[in-house]
Specification:
Blueprint lengths: L17 H24 L7 H15 L1 H9 L20 H24 L3 H27 L12 H27 L8 H30 L3 H14 L1 H20 L7 H32 L1
Helix pairs in contact: 1-2, 1-3, 1-5, 1-6, 1-10, 2-4, 2-6, 4-5, 5-6, 6-7, 6-10, 7-8, 7-9, 7-10, 8-9, 8-10, 9-10
């Protein structure tokens, strides 16, 4: 009698795990915070100048955590040196450009912050424009890296960079709202940020939520009515193993509840604004989790 015996299963190593998910969240929150910092000095909206320094310092601080995470995630940390050697540069490789952006973006932010402290309007605006381009490009590249993976059908969509940038915008604002709230409790009254300005930022966050919902709905349609692989990804991954970060963390906690708060009378309550900011930060991290690890799931385990 012929018998087939399975002695063991071989599971593939997940190339990008929690470390990369956190990295994507940090880069996005940094870019979003810096955009708000630029409102006053770059775009000339004077009422935003008082919070520009806090926003830029926040963006720099959280971005400085990124190299630590990426180098640690390499397994052999010294290999990061290859990214800086001309012989290993590939002009057509998104990660080559991403490395250049990650190195140059914080330098531009530090220079911008220096000129803000010195109250030098010309150079703050000039360097600020460069830093904004680098900030948006740094997070745009993370979406491109995910997009250019044909085998990971959940990630292989031109919507990826837009989804990443929109998530960066709303999570950056959410994080900044929480930081400004803490700052207002510590500093002298004359240095506090007007709460009306924070409420205005929350409204910008609400507009970003609406656009994020629209993009997520388009991606949902693609997975629900796509080819067999995309439909499998929807059923087995998004509504299966990664249902919690996709449906509950991102859609319900990070988008639906904050939207309800920010279009209702609750938006006039300080607790409502703070809660919506916190939930948006959590929801965007949920998106990073299912986007990074969910896309690899069927490849890694089957």
């Amino acid at each position: 009698m012929d018998e087939s015996v399975i002695t063991y299963n071989v599971f593939h190593h997940v190339a990008w795990g929690t470390t990369v998910s956190v990295y994507f969240w940090l880069v996005g929150a940094s870019a979003g915070s810096f955009v708000i910092s630029s409102f006053g000095w770059v775009f000339g909206i004077k009422r935003y100048k008082p919070l520009a320094l806090t926003a830029s310092v926040t963006a720099i601080t959280i971005l400085l955590l990124v190299p630590i995470l990426l180098i640690w995630d390499l397994g052999k940390p010294l290999r990061f040196i290859y990214l800086m050697l001309p012989g290993y540069w590939h002009a057509t490789g998104p990660m080559s450009w991403g490395s250049a952006l990650i190195f140059s973006y914080p330098i531009a932010m530090i220079l911008y912050t220096y000129f803000v402290i010195k109250n030098n309007a010309f150079w703050a605006r000039t360097i600020g424009i460069i830093a904004i381009v680098l900030a948006l490009s740094t997070h745009w590249y993370t979406g491109v890296v995910m997009e250019l993976n044909p085998g990971r059908f959940l990630n292989h969509t031109a919507l990826a960079p837009l989804l990443f940038l929109t998530g960066a915008f709303i999570s950056g604002i959410g994080l900044l709202i929480l930081i400004l709230w803490v700052q207002n409790m510590i500093v002298a009254e004359r240095k506090r940020i007007n709460w009306a300005l924070i409420e205005e930022m929350a409204q910008y966050m609400m507009y970003g939520i609406v656009f994020d919902v629209f993009l997520l709905f388009l991606h949902f349609l693609q997975t629900l009515y796509g080819n067999l692989n995309e439909m499998l990804g929807h059923e087995a991954v998004l509504m299966g193993v990664f249902k919690f970060p996709y449906l509950w963390l991102e859609t319900v906690v990070g988008l639906a509840i904050p939207f309800i708060i920010l279009v209702s009378p609750l938006k006039r309550l300080k607790s409502g604004v703070l809660l919506s900011a916190l939930l948006v930060c959590i929801g965007v991290y949920g998106m990073r989790v299912w986007w990074v690890m969910g896309g690899q799931f069927l490849q890694s385990f089957y």
